[in-house]
Amino acid sequence: MQQLPTTKPDTPATNPAPIPLKELATILIRHYGYHEGFYEVGVQFNIAVGSVGPDPTLVAPGAVVAVAGIGLAKCPESSPLGVDASVVNPVTAVEVKKPARKKAVKPVKA
User: What is the pLDDT of residues 56-74, one digit of tens each?
Assistant: First the structure.
């Protein structure tokens, strides 16, 4: 079995910088192939309520919030986080290929 490479304890982990929301919207617009309209990142949350605490004797009413998904939401032009799909993912003109011409075949005389 192949062992995965590990980092040395004295080597700090290099994490890439977080992606800004407008850049993430641009990535998703290109991923979904949108070419028009304004979009911004939308985050879907799940919320659960109940008794929470470190042990059964120290419980209190509480809530847990989890991120369930990230996607795009259509928005008006005036949105501060809105991205114009026609600017970041313009429609490119595709050259239409002509069908190949068939060669004329002469009939074979018997």
Answer: 899 999 999 999 999 999 9
Asked if 20 and 83 count as a contact pair (C-beta separation under 8 A), the reply is: no
Q: Three-state SS for 21? A: helix
32 DSSP 8-state letter:
H
- Give the chain's domain count: 1
pTM greater than 0.85: no
Report the side by side order of strands in the sheet with 38-52: 60-74, 38-52, 83-84
- Return the structure tokens found at 108: 């074979």
- Residue 35 carries which DSSP code? -
Chain position carrying tokens 């005389």: 109
Domain that includes residue 69, residue range: 21-88
Please list, in sequence order, all residues whose beta carbon lies within 8 angstroms of the beta carbon of residue 89, skipping any fewer than 6 positions away.
Answer: 26, 29, 30, 33, 34, 35
Lowest mean per-residue pLDDT among 21-30, 46-55, 77-86, 91-100: 91-100
In a domain, 69, yes or no: yes
If DSSP codes are grouped into helix, strand and coil, which group holds residue 30?
Answer: helix
